[in-house]
Amino acid sequence: MTQATDLADEYFAYRQATEPHRLLYSGQLDGLANWEDLRSPAITERQESLRRFAARADAVALDASDDDRILLETVAFTANAAASGLTWRNEQTHVNPAFGVHTRLATFLGRFALSTAAHGDDYLRKLERLPTMLEQLEEEITTSAADGNVALARHLSASADAVEALVAADEQPLASQAAPTALSPADANAWRAEVDRIVSDRVLPALVDYGAALRELSSRGRSDAQAGICHLAGGDELYAELVWASTSLELTPEEIHEIGVDQIERLEAEYVEVAGPLVGATDISDIYAHLRDDGSMKYESGDDIVRDAAAALDRARAAAPGWFSSIPVSDCLANKVPTGPLAFYSAPDPDTGKPANFFFNTADPSAWSTYQLEAVTFHESIPGHHLQIGGFRESTTLHPVQTQFGITAYLEGWGLYTERLADEMGLYSSELSRVGMLSADSMRACRLVVDTGMHALGWSRAEAIDYVERHSPLSSTQIEGEIDRYIGMPGQALSYMIGRLEIDSIRAAAEASDSFEIAAFHDQVLGYGMVPLPTLRRIVAA
User: Fold this and answer.
1) Do 19 and 91 have their domain in common?
2) Is there a domain that residue 158 lies in?
3) How many independent structural domains does the chain possess?
4) Is 337 inside any structural domain?
5) Cα–Cα distance measured from residue 483 to residue 353, given in angstroms and rounded to the nearest whole number
6) What is the distance between the alpha carbons of residues 417 and 459, in angstroms, rounded to a whole number?
7) 536 belongs to a structural domain
């Protein structure tokens, strides 16, 4: 043990204790009964503690070994970034229909693998304490609004609609938790009856009150013309802080905006070259319209989606050893789900032998364009997140801080990098599938323009929607969902393309060496867990 690992251990334990959902999302049931304390004094205390951890890590790093310095830089960055995120507190004071508390409750509660009677007792306590958490939320939102710090009217109204729909659901998701497996049939029935009682008598009335508070506040919400946080007191300074927390780089919003515009121009030239001959058009607007509207490019069956994804994964699995010297032992499988994001990766569990999965939401197969699928597959599985996160989970040397505290610019920058790497590897099955690579890039490049446009340059929601409609093949429904996400999570969407471009730049510098080997480069990028991008550049350059 070193001073660095001791500090990292202390920091990791603090984050787990103050953010109980971290353990729960990873399948650990310690702290199941608890909710985060969302009151302003508790938030301020957490921010101060996180800043102290960062300062201590910076001080220890001055005399640390190379490996310890890397760990300490990850501690310092994630602590400072978490403190910045608490300043925004989007779940408390900035309600967004895509990720408000109602979304967490509907998708989070009822999905735990409870085994013991103690787990059952903790779950009942969690439900009993839910009204208190909602009261804290309501107080924070109301107080913030009185200070002029209020969400968009449309987001408050849509969130109220979602809360009301959750309360009125015929099959109540909040009462769907399976009983602990250790209980006898009679005890399990009694336990489920108690869950039903708490949900009916305490949880649903609290949600009704919370929804009513959102509905009342919607009349005072910001207009769509004031979509960005530049319209809030201190918004410019906060956005600059969130840009750093999302990218780990010292870039101004204006610089990022111009990077996005440049990327869009380059992409449109690629569309004309790759997609133009396929759709019989040379005008970029016509190309986008064809890709957006051609029904023959839509899936009709969820089984077809999984079949094509599995075939792409097979090609990637076979090709990977020529490009990577370290590949996770755990397998990665394609599966479909009826709810959740369009696509997401679930890491393996080496202790139980559970493989990794990447899931496709197939509730509406036509939401998937045939040309999109392969790029998404490579991003989520091989050579993307499975070789990254799956490898982290199997590591016996990385600290949990390096494997469990996400640094989005590193995490998603790698995902985007591998969409282009897959092209180098010859994994795309057709020119049409290569268009999917361009489509994914379009969305991420547009994010640089519209996120900075709204939050730094004062763009309206409509201006942001119009820009993406003119510069990508995304559908109107997809675009509106994306823009509303960016409004509610300032800066977060910048991390994807900025991360990829930085990894591209780091690789270009490494390729200047006569001894460059692609597999060795990838080992360096993936060998130290999640790291800030300046740290990654130093690792590769060493």
Assistant:
1) yes
2) yes
3) 2
4) no
5) 39
6) 29
7) yes
* Residue 283 and residue 254 share a domain: yes
Residues 254 and 376 in one domain: yes
| 215 shares a domain with 82 | yes
How many CB atoms neighbour CB 285 within 10 A? 12
127 and 19 housed in the same domain: yes
284 and 406 share one domain = yes
Report the first-to-last Cα separation within the chain, whole angstroms.
Answer: 24
Model's pTM, two decimal places?
Answer: 0.93
Strand order in the sheet with 343-346: 332-337, 356-361, 343-346
Same domain? 167 vs 68: yes
Contacts of 333 (CB under 8 A, 6+ apart): 310, 355, 356, 357, 358
Range of the domain at 60: 3-222
The answer to whether the CB of 403 falls within 8 A of the CB of 338 is no
Q: Same domain, yes or no, for 194 and 256?
A: no
Is residue 61 domain-resident? yes
Per-residue pLDDT of the chain (542 residues; tens, 9 = 90+): 899 999 999 999 999 999 988 778 777 888 899 998 988 899 999 999 999 999 999 999 999 999 999 999 999 999 999 999 998 877 666 687 777 888 778 777 888 889 999 999 999 999 999 999 999 999 999 998 888 889 999 999 999 999 999 999 988 889 999 999 999 999 999 999 999 999 999 999 999 999 999 999 999 999 999 999 999 999 999 999 999 999 999 999 999 999 999 999 999 999 999 999 999 999 999 999 999 999 999 999 999 999 999 999 999 999 999 999 999 999 999 998 887 678 889 888 888 888 999 898 898 999 899 999 999 999 999 999 999 999 999 999 999 999 999 999 999 999 999 999 999 999 999 999 999 999 999 999 999 999 999 999 999 999 999 999 999 999 998 899 999 999 999 999 999 999 999 999 999 999 999 999 999 999 999 999 999 999 999 999 98
